[in-house]
Amino acid sequence: MASCQEQIKENNLALEYAFNDSYWRIESPDGSADSLKIVDHQGRQSLLLNPGQKAILKDIAFKNFVVEFHCNGQVPGFGFRVQDPKNYEYLYLRMMMSGNRDALQYVPIHNGNLPWQLYNYPQYEGNAIYPRREVATIPLSMKDQLVSGKASDSLLTAIGNEGVEFSEESFVDIPDGSPAYIYDPRSGEALLFEAKEEGIVFLDIRTWVHVKAEVLENKMSVYVGDMDTPTFILDDLKHDTQAGGISLYSNFGEVHFSDFSITEIERGDTQSSEKDAKRIAPSYITKWHLSEMFVKDAVNFVQQADSLLKHRDKFKEINADKDGLVNISRFYDDMDKTILLTSKIVSDSEKEVTLNFDYADHLVILLNSETLFDGGMNFRPPPNKGAEGRVFVEDERTKLKLQKGTNWLVFVLSGDNRQKYNWGCIAKLEDLDGISLE
User: Fold this and answer.
1) What is the CA radius of gyration of the chain?
2) What is the pLDDT of residue 12?
3) Helix (H) or strand (E) holding 352
4) H or E element: which one contains 346?
């Protein structure tokens, strides 16, 4: 796939925005102003952001552009086309997931929510290789000390002799599908480890990474390390294509940024081709009617739903994204609440059809007032909840026993009231034989 670079004029010049008070302002997690900190870090003069801080480029908006910078930290983030503090496009790097399909994450931020479970691979997450710093090596004979649980005294002594101090509260974790690591809750320090020929090597993810992102209309190409070949290409940015601000973020742990520049793209071939657009199957439920928010009664929610459904004329018609996903954060901002989504299914006869679906964070499915499904993420996905708790339409299924004529499918969907991140769903019927979606 061609990158955005092929559509950029060669004579555009990169403008550097030095990290000083003339160009940038710093915000604390509560939105208050904070001081800008410039430090020398691993050979570079850099902007230091503490956890939850963000740096905002002052009074400048960009629509189509190339941004380039170096970053160093656990989860550095980059916001663009920022309309206000709660609505923007967002790209962040999961430095600990180097080489994995979810090393890069794009999410559209609506109403301040970060729905990483909804926007997943292969379309919204991508692979990237990040460098590592080797900080300690211990003998392979100590491999039996690296088991999940509290770190042994001998392990702590061995890495301490290498100049790496971890407290007695430290523990080892070896998760499935993710890098093994040792973590010190007292200091917040973490190191990955892996066995090599020379021994067990401990690696620090906090090292400099060169990043470039090209944004043109609804497309973005991301380069990591190699500035000539994109590692991740996204052709479906979710917000409206309009100029907006630029921000840098630190979500977990300290993050450093260095050598920040932007090249504005004034013109380009921005015509999208309908024939190239990805189309989903007509069996996806893409038209819904959305209720107002309400506080769910854990016992009497069916009666609540029936009461609301008597006033369907007050529901508003909404469309899913072009991939079938419904992100409730586009419409509401209170994740302590619940909404109803309704869809009218008309069948030419009594029949049974499979409904494939997925959701975040808690979902009850009703068909003609009968409860068919009741499940939740409960902050952390249950063991059988698909891949890492992400929302994929094939993860869940239930049978719909349709009556002849009109059937009302109702999703009672609650937000993620712990993290305040995810609130959405996706659904499709296994087939549409004798069935219409209205």
Assistant:
1) 24
2) 66
3) strand 351-360
4) strand 338-347
